[in-house]
Amino acid sequence: MDIISLLIQAVSGAVGGNVAGAAMKDNTLGVIGNSLAGIVGGGLGGTILQAVMGSTAAGGGGMDMQSILANVGGGGVGGAILMAIIGIIKNKMAKT
Question: Quick check: 12 and 26 in contact, CB under 8 A?
Answer without folding.
Answer: no
